[in-house]
Amino acid sequence: MSAYVRLSGMADNEDKDIALVTRIAEGDKAAFRALFETYGERVFRYVYRMVNDEGRAEEVTNDVMLEVWKGARKFEGRSKASTWVLGIARHLALNAIRGKQLVTVDLVDSPEVADGREPEATVRDRDTVKQKLRVALAKLSSDHREVVELAFFHGYSYQEVAEVMGCPESTVKTRMFHAKKQLRQALKHSGLDGMTLEAVP
Question: Which residues contact 29 (CB under 8 A, 6 or more apart)?
């Protein structure tokens, strides 16, 4: 598949998401259900990694989607719909843990969405790698872990990560620089010095 086709498909999905938000702003419940099907699980996984509690993650996810329903008219389309939704998710997740130290869970331990694209044998072969990666990620601060997740697990640009986290892009770049440096060192000590973040499962 060519890069043009991939980028075109991504653009089409973004246009569809924005169209859904526009319809939600008009009170379209079917559009809301469609957006929930698209982002519900994704929001849950993101929130779960922050609050480290399945029940609370479910509550926050429902609150996020309710906020999407109520605030759709405020969406101006200046960013991706996904960036807007995860920005709401981050805000509400932080509210849920306000007054307590932010505790994140391992990225590789969070609930996964089965997409049928990965062979079972590949998953088994990566168990050892995941264990070592778990140790490496655990050594990062919550802010550093979050930029890694948003950039490499959600595919966001630094600018989009900055929008979700509500901080300058320069801050995201600095955090990513330190996160990569710490991960490289940790992975090297674990015998995975040849692994890059792009190869992280």
Answer: none
CATH of the domain spanning 111-189, picked from 3.30.1490.20, 3.30.70.3270, 3.30.110.10, 1.10.10.10: 1.10.10.10
Judge whether 28 and 80 are in contact, CB under 8 Å: no
Count of alpha carbons within 13 Å of 193, Cβ hemisphere only? 4
Asked whether 17 and 35 are in contact (CB, 8 A), the reply is yes
- The C-alpha atoms of residue 196 and residue 156 are separated, in whole angstroms, by 17
pLDDT per position as a tens digit, 137-191: 777 888 888 888 888 778 888 999 999 998 999 999 999 999 888 888 877 776 6
The pair phi, psi for residue 87, each rounded to 5°, is -65, -40
Q: What is the pTM of this model?
A: 0.66
78 and 140 in contact (C-beta within 8 Å)?
no
